[in-house]
Amino acid sequence: MNAMARNGLPREAVPSAFDTEARFYDRLVGANPGYHEHLRLSARRLAAPGPRVLDAGCGTGASTAALLSVLPSARITAFDASGEMLERARSKTWPGNVEFVHTPVEELAGIHGPFDGILAAYLLRNLTDPTTQLRRLRALLRPGGRIAVHEYSVGDSRRARWIWNAVCAGVIIPLGKLTTGDATLYRHLRRSVLEFDGITALARRLTDAGFTDVHTATVGGWQRDIVHTVVGTAPSEPV
């Protein structure tokens, strides 16, 4: 049994699951207090040292909008493996400095570096081999470029696991079922977060992928120690 089969949906099933739920996605994340502000916080923490930024796993464009709000003049390339999620993103109004590409991170077809910064929001948890894909993303950064991984991580906190389980059981899964008629993706969300790296292991994963100056920060409110930003820097010398 592979990692994603144990933790939730298998990797190859994740894009199609998001395809199915794409029309409901913005409504559901809009009901999540702090969702958009937390993305903007990670975009600020990225502190990209130049104007070219990659949004890895952009979904319906919430992370793209967060980057644009923080870096309004940046040239943003956003990609996602789900065609339906990407169509939702493209249907919104964007300035000319934003482009969208349909590709999984395992292929990166049509994605050409170097970039000054990468925001990867809620992406790694859905990958079969996150470290390998982090290395692929690092290779797209110019020396000194930065990555910000924005992700759920509850493995290092008993309080965070308890809150996550309670919120999933009491809110996320029932609301997803009520809104979409199918709770599959929301049960996957619960399991995948519970089985994903603790924040210490996630930071170590970035180091193993060749990033330097790796540091972490969480958010405030009830999602403290649940939502995190992990920032790393591409080294000046080849790894």
TrEMBL record:
<dbReference type="GO" id="GO:0032259">
    <property type="term" value="P:methylation"/>
</dbReference>
<dbReference type="GO" id="GO:0008168">
    <property type="term" value="F:methyltransferase activity"/>
</dbReference>
<keyword id="KW-0830">Ubiquinone</keyword>
<protein>
    <submittedName>
        <fullName>Ubiquinone/menaquinone biosynthesis methyltransferase</fullName>
    </submittedName>
</protein>
<dbReference type="Pfam" id="PF01209">
    <property type="entry name" value="Ubie_methyltran"/>
</dbReference>
<keyword id="KW-0808">Transferase</keyword>
<keyword id="KW-0489">Methyltransferase</keyword>
<dbReference type="InterPro" id="IPR029063">
    <property type="entry name" value="SAM-dependent_MTases_sf"/>
</dbReference>
